[in-house]
Amino acid sequence: MQKMENTSTIATPDIPRVERLRLHDTVVEHLRKLIIEGVLSPGVKLNERELCETLGISRTPLREAFKVLAAEGLIEIAPNRGASVARMTEKEIREMFELMSALEAFSGELAAERMTPVELAEIKALHYAMLACRAQQDLPGYYARNQAIHDRINEAARNGALRQTYVAINRRLMALRFRSNFHADKWDRAIAEHEQMIDALEKHDGKRLGEILRKHLLAKRDAVLQIHAEPADNAPTN
C-alpha cells in the first residue's frame, strides 16, 4: 500500500514580522522622546547615518519611523532635503494651545462626572509621584507623570471622538509642554494647579475642573511663547 503524504500545513506565528513591528514602535518612541525632551531641537536636520549608528538599526526602520513622526507633525520631510524636527511658528503655538485648552477643559467636565474611584486613586498616585520628581529636580520623570495625569483625565471622559482629537493635538505639543516647566516658578505653579484639579475631581465639580484646565493650558501657552521669543543662548534652565 502506498503511503499518502500529509500535505496539510500548520500555521506558525510570523515571528520576524512581530519583531519588525516591535523595532518600528521602539524607534518611533525613542525618537519621539528625543524630540520631546529637546535632545533633537526644532529645526535640526536629522542625519540618517548618525541616527542609524546611534540606535544600532538600518535605514528602513528609521525611515518608517520618520513617516509616523511626520504624520504626527513632529518632523518634516522635504524632497531631496531629508527630515528635520518641525518648528512651530508663534501663530501655530497660539492656535494649538487655544485648541488644546478647550479639549482639556471639555475632558475635565466629562471626567468629573464619569471618573471611577479607582481612576481617581490612580491619578492621585501619579500626582504624588510627580511631586517626588519635582523634589529631585527630575524634569523628565515629572513630565511623564504630569502627562499621564492629563491623559487619564481625558480617558475618563469616555468620549472616543474627543480622545482621538486630543491624542493627535497633544503629540504636536508635547515638546513645548515639556519646555514650559524650565522655570522653577512656572514648575511650582503647575503643581499648585494640579492640586486644584484633584480637589475638583474629588468633589465631582466638572465646571471648576474645566476652568482650571483651561487656565492651566493657557498659562503653558504663555510660558512657551516667552521661551519662543528668547534667544537660543538665553534659553532658561532649571
Automatic annotation (TrEMBL):
PROSITE patterns per the UniProt record, alphabetical: HTH_GNTR
Keywords associated with the record: DNA-binding, Transcription, Transcription regulation
Domain HTH gntR-type: 21-88
Keyword Transcription regulation: yes
Annotated SMART domains: FCD (SM00895), HTH_GNTR (SM00345)
Keyword Transcription regulation appears in the UniProt entry: yes
Residue ranges the record marks as coiled coil: none
Molecular function in Gene Ontology: DNA binding; DNA-binding transcription factor activity
CDD domains: WHTH_GntR
Tree of life domain: Bacteria
Protein name: GntR family transcriptional regulator
Organism in which the protein naturally occurs: Pandoraea terrigena
